[in-house]
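ok trying again, last paste got cut off:
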Amino acid sequence: MSSPQTNRRLAFRRPVVAWLAAIGALVGSGCRSAPPPGTIVACDPKGPARPVCGFHNPEDIVALPGDEALILGEYGQSAADHRGQLVLFVLATEERRSLFRGGEAPGGAEPGWGDPTCTEPPTRDFNAHGIDLVRRDDGRLQLLVVQHGGREAIESFEIEGAGADWRATWRGCVPAPPDASLNEVVGLPDGRLYTTKMASLSGALDFEHGMPTQPTGHAFAWSPTEGFRKIEGTEGIMPNGIEASPDGRFVYMNASGDGSIRKVEVATGRELGRAPVPSPDNVTWAPDGRRLLVASLAGLDPNDFAGCTTLVRGACTIPFAIVAVDAETMQTLGPVYESQGTPMGAGTVGLQVGQELFVGSFKGDRILRVALDADGQAR
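nice, full thing came through this time. structure:
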């Protein structure tokens, strides 16, 4: 059992929801053989939502071409507890199989798939966090993965296959900027990418007196020729999920501690709009290309999260919503789906594929398949 101070360091080192983990450590930590009070163990449907169990902290999700399969980034709690992996999930059969684990990397570094100084694949400590899939200008599919195990970096994989049959081959990486603990990434077809620095690796996030009141991070732009540069106008308290406009001109960045998602012009740093969203985590595009879907940890009770930090099976109960935001006006359009308990809490990503919403979580053994109507709302 680790001390609260150690728990805070781990949470901040792996900042999927760093401030929540710190709250959990402060509320109390302990070793439990049974599920913590309030844990959701039953894998039963409720309303439009049907859980699919057998995962381990499926924190982020992307859809593969053809919409027959998904890739999920399974997020390890710590190197001693569980190393993360990339998982393929086939929609029709609900087959789940490993695409990549650290220490098992076929292939080698290839020019144009990362920083030329990164020549070795991830070790067994590989720990998947935010992920993004992009079709490169050369037609190849590139999966970008923020990971914290062994090194702080954005790993680059080539994804090949079709239908329900896919494979991942490591092609390179981009080491994180000095002292940056990264959270999410979004790639562009020309090889550029944007990523969020949630906090510094060296500066402890002190939650003993409440939430930080000053910015802890910002977004970066990276290109193969220029490396990293800060995107002005993105300073915030615990930057988290990030998306980009199709042309790469704008970024949409969540800041968990600010309770908002903002739209910023990358070249100038000019903020073009901001929508209030409680404790936003990951953000994805809806299929209509007009709406952003933001995972929001709403109605948070620190005591609920204390149970989540010790969870070894089942799902925790933190209420959440998947909120739609108009990408042009940055007006909040309301929740697409909300959960106040069963069948899953602590949703950190909502991805619409066809007439279903797939929801992952930073802590738990399941994802949700939520049936949507023609307007993209939970039935």
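cool. The chain has a mean pLDDT of 88. The longest strand covers residues 165-175.
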